[in-house]
Structures are given as structure tokens and as C-alpha cells.
Amino acid sequence: MNGEYMEQTKIEEKEARSATDSMKINEREQTQIGLMRAYVETRDPSSKTKIEEKEARRARDSMKINEREQTQIGLMRAYVETQDPSSKEVDDQTLRRFLHARDLDIEKASVMFLKYLNWRRTYVVNGSISPSEVPHEIEQNKFFLQGSDKNGRPVAVLLASRHFKHKGGLDEFKRFNVYLLDKICSRMPSGQEKFVLIADLEGWGYSNSDIRAYLAALSLVQEYYPERLGKMFIVHSPYIFMSVWKILHPFIDNKTRKKIIFVDNKKLESTLLEEIDESQLPQIYGGQLPLVPAQDA
């Protein structure tokens, strides 16, 4: 009787695992995988064992990576806490992002992280930037926050043609970027650390060009918000923007470059819908959500 119960329990556990896997794969793919699996197993029964062995190897490799990361996080934490006691208040996920930004090099990641802590303490004195500190930037109404992509990453939209230099200067622009990035990060669900940006250049011209501001924003993201950008879609890009892009490109690190996609106007809607469900996509791109100004999000 106990044997039958244990056998039934094993069957139920196996079915539960299969159900979990199915949730991760869309129905069409699941059907195709099922048909293919059934076919190859009738042709070669050993294929079932080979597939299971491959899955087991992947699981073991994943465990090794996690163990290695955890060890490095522990070593990094031990070091940075001796250099700056406030490091104790930072979670492992944050340290992990800095490690990944420096290809798991503990020394380089620690230097980067300690620089971040000092910057945060001196530049964001009150812990956050308030809207009252960036009035000219907010007045331009150029940045929007609404919805999330299929991975749960918050979606932000920048209408670049609304950006102009103003009397607030570069410092207000940088503070506005900190205000935005902090707001985006606060909207990330548990377990998610990245966001998606749609940079819309429709109507952009030389009057909007601001190289110093672009470089400042790039520096902030790469130095103080590492591994936060998940993907950036540049849409409606005019030909004249490429002269600016050539200036910016050398300052973008390789990891960030791989996340930037210039979208063909003819494939705009289909490209965005691959990443963002229609119910979460802004109306101006064929979705259902209205644009919500960042300050109102």
C-alpha cells in the first residue's frame, strides 16, 4: 500500500513539474514540442533519456553559476562593508548588479559600488529627488511611465522632440534623470531589476540636440544604475540623428550597446508587440494604454 502511495506521489510530483514548465511556454510551442517529442521517442526511445540528461546538466550548470555568484557576492560584501559601513544596508541583488556590470570582477565591482554609495550620499542628499527640484524638466512633459513588457519590466517612453535646453541647465537635467530612474526602479515588481525604454525621435531636430545632456544621462545609467536597462528601442529615428549617434556610440559600453535596437518604421508595431502585450503598449504604437507623464505615474 505504501509502495502504491509513494508511486502515486512521484507521479503527481512529475505532473506538477510538467505543469510548471508548460506555463513558461506558450500553447502553440507546447503543442509542437509535444508532437516532436512523441515522434522522436517512437523513432529512438533513447532520446527520452538524452533529453532528461541534458535538462539535468543544465540544472547542475545553473546551480554552479548561482553558487559562484553567491560566493563572489559574499566576498564583495565583506570587502565593501570594511570600506563603507553603510554597505550593510544594501541587499545582495544590488551587489550582484554591480558584479555583473564588471564581469564578476570583485575588485572592479567593489570600486564601482563604493563610488556609487559616495555619489548617492552627496548628490541625492535627501534620499530622493523631488519634482520641485526639476520644474523646467517636468514642464517639458517629455517622459512617460505606464505598463510593463512580457517579462514584467516597466515600460518608459521618451518623446525626444520635446527636449530643449533651459535655464535649469545641465544639473537640473541630471537631477531629473535621477528622479526618473528612481521612480522607474520603485515600480519594478519583486524579482525584476530592469526596465524597457522606448526613445521616440519623431520630430527630433537640431534644436533638440544636446550632446552634453545625452552623455550625462548615459554616464548616470552606466555608472550608478548598472544592469537596470533591459532594452531600449529607438523609434522614428531621422537621418540627421545619426551624426549625433556617431558621437555617442564610443561612450556606450558593449553590454549596453547590445540592448539598443533601432526599429524600422515599417516594423514598429510588430517589433514592439513581440516584447510588449497590446494591453500594456501605449496607444501611439498600436496598443491600449494612454501615455502617463512620469510625474503623474
UniProtKB/TrEMBL annotation:
Q: Where is the composition biased (Basic and acidic residues)?
A: 7-30, 40-63
- In this chain the CRAL-TRIO domain maps to 131-293
Query: One Pfam annotation, family name?
Result: CRAL_TRIO
Segments of this protein annotated with the region Disordered = 1-63
Protein name, entry field: CRAL_TRIO domain-containing protein/CRAL_TRIO_N domain-containing protein
Species for this entry: Cephalotus follicularis (Albany pitcher plant)
